[in-house]
Amino acid sequence: MDSIRTQAYAKLLENGIQAIEEVNRLLGSGYTRDDIYVISHNEDREGRIVDAADTNEVGLQEEGLFGAIANMFRSRGDALRNKITSLGFSAAEAAFYEKELDLGKVLVIAKKNLH
């Protein structure tokens, strides 16, 4: 990951309403919907928040084909850590965020590619 060309921001929130508010705040500060990702330990909850905020889930483009296929065989926690690292965070940061997600929090990540 080329950290010079990428800026990544992450914020843990208590619930979906706060996550949607954070997405709107990020949109107002110059990020686009394509720059913003929502991650939750509960896949259904994550999908509802992504739909309501009209933003992204981490997918094939971010993880790559191998990562996406590997996630099909990983535990949810392992898959979440992989998704977080695919957005430019260290393994230690991903482990911290995943533990917080395990407690019911929602993670909003904004990643802007600088061209």
Overview of this protein structure:
It is a single chain. This protein has 115 residues and is an alpha+beta fold. The chain is 51% helix and 18% strand. It has 5 helices and 3 strands, in the order βαβααααβ. The chain has a 3-stranded antiparallel β-sheet with strand order 1-3-2, with helices on both faces. 30% of the residues are buried. This is General stress protein.
H/E element string?
EHEHHHHE
Spatial shape: globular
Tally of contiguous helical segments:
5
Distance from first to last alpha carbon: 14 Å
List the defining traits of the structure above.
globular, alpha+beta, GSP17M-like_dom, 115 residues, disordered N terminus, General stress protein
Describe this structure in a few short sentences:
The chain is an alpha+beta fold and 115 residues long. The protein has one domain (6-113).
